[in-house]
Amino acid sequence: MANQAKHHRTVTGLVLGALMMFGFGFALVPLYDVFCEITGLNGKVDLVQAEPSTFIDHSRQVKLQMVAVNNETMPWRFRPVSSMVELAPGEMHQTAYLARNLTEGFMIAQAVPSVSPSEAAPYLEKINCFCFERQPLKGQEEKEMPLVVSISPELPEHIHTITLSYTLFDITPEQKAELAGQGRSSL
Amino acid sequence: MNTSVAVSHHHGPASGISRWLFTTNHKDIGTLYLWFSFLMFLTGGCMALLIRAELFQPGLQLIQPDFFNQMTTMHGLIMVFGAVMPAFVGLANWMIPLMVGAPDMALPRMNNWSFWILPFAFAMMISTLFMDGGAPNFGWTFYAPLSTTYAPPSVTFFIFAVHMMGISSIMGAINIIATILNLRAPGMTMMKLPLFVWTWLITAFLLIAVMPVLAGVVTMMLMDIHFGTSFFDAAGGGDPVLFQHVFWFFGHPEVYIMILPAFGIVSEIIPTFARKKLFGYASMVYATASIAVLSFVVWAHHMFTVGLPLAGELFFMFATMLIAVPTGVKVFNWVATMFRGSMTFETPMLFALAFVVLFTIGGFSGLMLAIAPVDFQYHDTYFVVAHFHYVLVPGAVFAIMAGAYYWLPKWCGNYYNETMGKVHFWCNFIGVNITFFPMHFIGLAGMPRRIPDYALQFADFNAIATVGAFIFGFSQLIFLYNVISCIRNSKPASDRVWEGSHGLEWTVASPAPYHSFSEPPQVK
Ligand SMILES: [Cu+2]
C-alpha cells in the first residue's frame, strides 16, 4: 500500500530526528564548556598551566582577593596565607593556601577554582596551582599548598578587583572506589 | 476472502477488558488517554489539596516538611506529564483522524503501545511514595545536585519513569505527524486543516525536538548517581548550572507543548458559538509556528539569578518579550472572531471565554517575569506559582474541559446536562481565581514557593487560596458525574451537535461510529 511506504519514510525521518536531539542533549555538555571557555561566562577557569608573561604593565594595580570555601561537610581547615594582594598586570605572584586535615583518618581533597567577576576569568593565569592535583592528607597532617598566579596585561581597564575563590571538595570515597577498581569514568 | 474474515474486519469493538488492552482503534485509545489523564488529574489534585490544607494556616499542622516537598514534586510531575499532556494526546487521537478525514491513526499498533506505557510509568513513579527515603522531593524541575547528590534512593525509579513517559510522548508525536502529513482526505490541503490539527502538528514537532533532551538530562543524572560521572558535580569538574541549561532547553518548549493544543481547541470552539469564521486563519498558523520557533531561544529566562552575564540577561529578556507578539496576534484574532458574532454561551464557550481572559492574565504576569531586573525579586516566589498556574489551570486545563464538553456529544451520542455544565464552569472559574489570584500578592510581598510554613503576614491570603482550591477541586466531581450520566443515558445528540459547528468531524453520525471515513470524504 502506498500509505505504508509514506509512513515508513515519515517515521524514519522523525525517529532519526529524535535520536539526533538525544545526542544534542549530550552535545550541550562540551558545547557549554567551550562556550564558557571562549566567553569566560561562568567564572570557570581551566585547569591548565599558563606560561609566565614577559611584559609587566606598571601603569595600574589590580586587587586580587583570595577566598577559601569548604564544600558542605568537608572537615578540613582551609584558608589562604594572605587574603589580599595588589598586583601589576603581568607581575608574577607567589602565595599559598593552608590546609589541615582535622580528622584522624586519611582523606583526599580536590580544590575547584572560580573567578569573579566572570569577565576576568580568562585573564587570571595560574602558573602553578594546587588545584591541578588532588591533595591527599593523613589525619591531622597540615600542608602549605603553593599557588603562583599572574594577571594578564590584556585585562580590561574597568576591572580593578578580582576575586579568586577555591572550594575544597572531599573526594575520598570516590578515590577509594577507584582503587577498588570500579573507577570514575570521567573527571 | 471468506465472509467471516470480512465480518470480523468490520465488526464493532471486541468485548470485555481485551477490547481496551489490545485495541488499535483511535477512538478507543483516545478514550483511554482521556480517562487516564482524568484519573491523574484527580491524583495530582488530591496532592495539591494536601499542600493547600497544610498552607491553610502558618505552622506545621498536617504533614512534615519532607513529605510536603514530596507532594509539591509529585503534584507537578503528575499534572504536567500525567494529566495535561495525555489529555491533549487523547483529544488528538479522537479528533485528528475525524478532522482530516482519515480512517484511523497512521500507526495504530504503535498507538496502543504509546498509551499502555503510561500506566506503568506512573505506577512506578507513584510507587516511590512507599519506598525507603520517600518519593522524589526535589521539585518537578529536579535541579542537580538536589536530584543527584542529595536525592532519595527512589530517584532511580523516577528517572526510569521519565524515560518511559518520554518514549510514550515521542511515539505519540510521531503517530500524529504521520497521520496529519500522510492521511489527509483528498482536497484537505494544509491550509484547510482545522487549527486544532495545525497546533497539534507543531506541538508534535516540539515534542520530538525536546523530549529526547529531557531523556538526555535524566540519563546524565543516572550516570552521575550510579556510574561516577560528574556532569553536574563541581568536585569532578562538572557544573550544576549546566543542569539548568539543559533542563530548561527542554522545559520552555515543554510549556508550549502544554498550551499550543489549547490554542487549537479554543480556535475551534469560539467560531462555533460566535457563528462566524475564525478571524485570521493564516495568521493563527504563522503565529503558532513562530511561538514554537522562539521557544528554543528563551530558556534562560528561568535562570536570570544564576549569574548570567549582562549580555545574556538582555538577550533572553528581549527574546522572551518578543513571544508576546504572536501571542497577542492570537488573542486579537479570538476577540475579532467574536466581534459582532451572534454568540451563545454554552459550557464549552464559557470555558473558552474564560480561557481567553485568564490565559491573558497569565501571559501578562509572564511578561513581568521576563523583565530580568525585576525577576530578581519575583524569582522563586509565589508570584511565579501564580503565573504558571494561571497559564496551566485556566489555560491548559480550561481548554481541555472546553474541548471535552464540546466533543462529548460526538463521542457518546448524547448531550451532557447543560445546567450541570454551567454549575461546573462557575465553580471552576470562581475557585481558580480565589486560589491563584491572591498568590500574586503574597508572591510580590516575598513569600517563597515550596515551603510548608510561612511568615504570619501571609496567613490571610493563604487561607483564602486554600478555600478556593477546595472549591475548584471538589467541583471536578460535578464534571465526572455529568460525563458518566451523559454516557449512560441522556438526550440524543444530532450529527452536527452544535448549530454553528463546521468541519469533517460533524459529518459523521453521533456517536461517532467505531470505524469512520473508511472511504475518504471529498473536501471541496
Ligand atoms: Cu520559559
From TrEMBL, chain A:
<dbReference type="InterPro" id="IPR023471">
    <property type="entry name" value="CtaG/Cox11_dom_sf"/>
</dbReference>
<keyword id="KW-1133">Transmembrane helix</keyword>
<keyword id="KW-0472">Membrane</keyword>
<dbReference type="Pfam" id="PF04442">
    <property type="entry name" value="CtaG_Cox11"/>
</dbReference>
<dbReference type="InterPro" id="IPR007533">
    <property type="entry name" value="Cyt_c_oxidase_assmbl_CtaG"/>
</dbReference>
<comment type="similarity">
    <text>Belongs to the COX11/CtaG family.</text>
</comment>
<dbReference type="GO" id="GO:0005507">
    <property type="term" value="F:copper ion binding"/>
</dbReference>
<comment type="function">
    <text>Exerts its effect at some terminal stage of cytochrome c oxidase synthesis, probably by being involved in the insertion of the copper B into subunit I.</text>
</comment>
<feature type="transmembrane region" description="Helical">
    <location>
        <begin position="12"/>
        <end position="32"/>
    </location>
</feature>
<keyword id="KW-0186">Copper</keyword>
<dbReference type="GO" id="GO:0005886">
    <property type="term" value="C:plasma membrane"/>
</dbReference>
<keyword id="KW-0735">Signal-anchor</keyword>
<keyword id="KW-0812">Transmembrane</keyword>
<protein>
    <recommendedName>
        <fullName>Cytochrome c oxidase assembly protein CtaG</fullName>
    </recommendedName>
</protein>
Automatic annotation (TrEMBL), chain B:
<keyword id="KW-0472">Membrane</keyword>
<feature type="transmembrane region" description="Helical">
    <location>
        <begin position="195"/>
        <end position="222"/>
    </location>
</feature>
<keyword id="KW-0813">Transport</keyword>
<feature type="transmembrane region" description="Helical">
    <location>
        <begin position="384"/>
        <end position="408"/>
    </location>
</feature>
<feature type="transmembrane region" description="Helical">
    <location>
        <begin position="115"/>
        <end position="135"/>
    </location>
</feature>
<dbReference type="InterPro" id="IPR000883">
    <property type="entry name" value="Cyt_C_Oxase_1"/>
</dbReference>
<keyword id="KW-0186">Copper</keyword>
<keyword id="KW-1278">Translocase</keyword>
<feature type="transmembrane region" description="Helical">
    <location>
        <begin position="242"/>
        <end position="266"/>
    </location>
</feature>
<dbReference type="GO" id="GO:0006119">
    <property type="term" value="P:oxidative phosphorylation"/>
</dbReference>
<keyword id="KW-0249">Electron transport</keyword>
<keyword id="KW-0679">Respiratory chain</keyword>
<dbReference type="GO" id="GO:0020037">
    <property type="term" value="F:heme binding"/>
</dbReference>
<dbReference type="InterPro" id="IPR023615">
    <property type="entry name" value="Cyt_c_Oxase_su1_BS"/>
</dbReference>
<feature type="domain" description="Cytochrome oxidase subunit I profile">
    <location>
        <begin position="20"/>
        <end position="524"/>
    </location>
</feature>
<keyword id="KW-1133">Transmembrane helix</keyword>
<feature type="transmembrane region" description="Helical">
    <location>
        <begin position="423"/>
        <end position="443"/>
    </location>
</feature>
<keyword id="KW-1003">Cell membrane</keyword>
<feature type="transmembrane region" description="Helical">
    <location>
        <begin position="314"/>
        <end position="336"/>
    </location>
</feature>
<protein>
    <recommendedName>
        <fullName>Cytochrome c oxidase subunit 1</fullName>
        <ecNumber>7.1.1.9</ecNumber>
    </recommendedName>
</protein>
<keyword id="KW-0349">Heme</keyword>
<feature type="transmembrane region" description="Helical">
    <location>
        <begin position="463"/>
        <end position="484"/>
    </location>
</feature>
